[in-house]
User: Which sequence fits this backbone?
């Protein structure tokens, strides 16, 4: 299996993402933002960072990059796509996922370990976790407050589109309904604010992040 | 070239923490009685084809899900 990890000017988590992908047993390579082809790639990671300096709005410019055009086609064809932090923001800006990420309620950049609760159906999509399973994964962001109109939130919840919620009392940014990550209707595109690629080594306290990468790898089969 | 100014603001009903922070800072400076502060942004530009400005705003300058915009021709 070959992973493609996008790299924009201003990305900063692509190396950790490559490492996490390789730990699942696959190969991984960087996809520069000017590349227009994802030929030979089995799964895509849109990593964290500050693509194009986050000018205008986080993810607003990255959305129009040649690599993201390729990702949109890849996703439409059912290819698995994982967006982390800035990558989640990019996927929302690109309308590949519902909602938007706003400035944290605290107005502060927040960096800490949080517990996530896997939500939604147990099978048939990108996150094959047992519902209610907990994962310990760090967040580090200034604009991670998930927001969508109430009717959209209702539809996302009803359709099993909530992939992860912050555990009760741990919502770090004021996200609506404690939502930390969502998936699209088809189930092949997943975005989350926490950083699973920073939770893959026992040295840093948790390896729960690997479960997320393994789930994405499994979704390809 | 047509000059235009685009005002972009958070949609009504969406919490604006920046506005809240400004609001909380004002009394310390002696400005009492200021409320409902909302912070948006302004983009000035010159365009060959001002008719395309609304489309440009919807696609890039604003995110219509969370922001309203107004175009002012100068």
Assistant:
């Amino acid at each position: 299996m070959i992973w493609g990890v996008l790299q924009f000017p201003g990305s900063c988590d692509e190396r950790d993402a490559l490492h996490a992908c390789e730990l699942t047993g696959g190969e991984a390579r960087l996809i520069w933002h000017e590349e227009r082809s994802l030929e030979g790639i089995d799964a895509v990671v849109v990593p964290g960072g500050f693509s194009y300096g986050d000018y205008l709005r986080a993810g607003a410019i990255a959305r129009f990059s040649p690599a993201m055009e390729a990702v949109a086609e890849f996703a439409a064809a059912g290819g698995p796509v994982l967006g982390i932090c800035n990558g989640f923001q990019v996927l929302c800006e690109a309308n590949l996922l519902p909602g938007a990420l706003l400035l944290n309620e605290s107005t502060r950049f927040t960096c800490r370990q949080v517990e996530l609760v896997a939500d939604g159906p147990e099978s048939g999509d990108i996150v094959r976790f047992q519902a209610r399973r907990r994962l310990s994964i760090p967040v580090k962001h200034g604009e991670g407050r998930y927001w969508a109109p109430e009717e959209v939130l209702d539809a996302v919840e009803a359709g099993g589109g909530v992939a992860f919620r912050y555990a009760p009392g741990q919502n770090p940014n004021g996200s609506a309904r404690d939502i930390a990550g969502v998936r699209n209707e088809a189930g092949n595109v997943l975005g989350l604010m926490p950083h699973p690629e920073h939770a893959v080594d026992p040295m840093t306290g948790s390896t729960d992040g690997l479960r997320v990468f393994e789930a994405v790898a499994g979704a390809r089969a | 070239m047509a000059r235009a100014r685009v005002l972009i603001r958070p949609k009504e009903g969406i919490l604006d923490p920046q506005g809240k922070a400004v609001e909380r800072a004002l009394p310390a400076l002696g400005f009492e009685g200021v409320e409902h502060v909302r912070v948006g942004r302004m983009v000035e530009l010159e365009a060959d084809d001002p008719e395309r400005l609304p489309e440009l705003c919807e696609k890039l300058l604003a995110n219509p899900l969370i922001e309203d915009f107004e175009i002012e021709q100068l």
